[in-house]
Amino acid sequence: MAAPALQIQGLHDCREAWAATLESLAAVDDRIVAVVNDSVGSSKLGGFQKKFPDRLINVGIAEQCMVGVGAGLANGGRIPFLSAAACFLTGRSLEQIKADVAYAGFNVKLVGQSSGVAYGELGPTHHSIEDFAWLRPLTNLTILCPADPWETAEAIRWAAIHDGPVYIRLSRMPVPDLDIAHRTFRVGKAELVRDGSDVTLIACGTTVHLAAKASDALKTEGIRARVLNMASINPLDEAAILAAASETGAIVTVEEASIRGGLGGAVAELTADNHPVPVERVGFPGFVPTGSVDWLFTEFGLTAQGIAAAARRAIGRAGK
After folding, report:
1. Separation between Cα atoms, residue 302 and residue 173, nearest integer Å
2. Cα separation values, 65 from 32, 61, 97, 313, Å
3. pLDDT single digits (tens) 216-238
4. Domain spanning 191-317: which CATH class is it, in words?
């Protein structure tokens, strides 16, 4: 059975927004360069390569080298955007990200493509569900997980002017635009998608529109579910999370990632230390099997129905 969320009309590939935004920024700032690991096509950087052939560096399938090259470029005054499949960028190059980029504080922008389980049938070697857990402890590395093309473009623009290391997590799976008026992108601040007082659904990336659908479904049952788009994983909007704990008494986290160490882990840590409430974590419990994206999302509850069920469990645990 296909996940209902993937049947929505008007879906868009965030990689298109990333590539178009990078091209527009590079046109006015010659410090911006792109570095890839034989991934020009999957990174949607064909247009960038044609427009700026001297500003795209392809190191081949050598991700550790790619991060080192990026660090050197940043040290020389360039603004490098490193683009590669998230599973290889963060897993294979973790030591270089830690030592050469984060510890050194270099102005390197890491763009993890095809994150989560977007590669589907290629299986656990290509699933990138551990990246949040690996990178969150690197305290000066900003971690962003945009929910739609608009937010993707805003994240890229912000990263280009921010002086410091950034990791931006993108998926190849099309998503709908969030229908929110007067949006403002602010790193470290959650975006209110739906208001509510009975439970809070905190989501990021490809799961935000699913949480919104779950909130709409719960409303028909008389349950008012707040939805927060937590695109900024580090820094985290602690004030919004603690307000949710205090005002709604129950929280559900939703992410296309491992529930260990990711957004769910961050929310659970914060609430446990400051305002304990029931926290249900929707995501992947560990290694997940090979399968289509639709099947994996449905199997592990990353659907409007699965999120709504988690919300009911959290409310029940809170004794509401």
Report:
1. 14
2. 19, 9, 11, 46
3. 999 999 999 999 999 999 999 99
4. alpha beta
Question: Quick check: 136 and 167 in contact, CB under 8 A?
Answer: no
CA 185 to chain centre: 14
The answer to whether residues 256 and 302 touch, using CB atoms and an 8 Å cutoff, is yes
Q: How would you classify the pairing of strands 232-234 and 191-194? A: unpaired
List, in sequence order, every residue forming a beta bridge with 284; answer none if it has no partner: 258
Q: How far apart are CA 119 and CA 285, in angstroms?
A: 18
Question: Which residues lie closer than 8 Å to 212 by C-beta, 6 or more apart?
Answer: 178, 193, 194, 227
Angle 126-131-135 (CA atoms, 0-180°, nearest 5)? 150
Which H or E element spans position 244? helix 238-248
What is d(CA 186, CA 158) in angstroms, rounded to the nearest whole number? 9
Domain limits, the chain: 11-176, 191-317
Q: What is the pLDDT of residues 267-319, one digit of tens each?
A: 999 999 999 999 999 999 999 999 999 999 999 999 999 999 999 999 999 99
CATH for 11-176, options being 3.40.50.11540, 1.10.10.10, 3.40.50.970, 2.70.70.10? 3.40.50.970
> One fold for both 11-176 and 191-317?
yes
Q: How far are the Cα atoms of 31, 169, 292 from residue 148, in angstroms, in the given order?
A: 27, 12, 21
User: Which secondary structure element, helix H or strand E, spans residue 284, and what is its range?
Assistant: strand 279-284
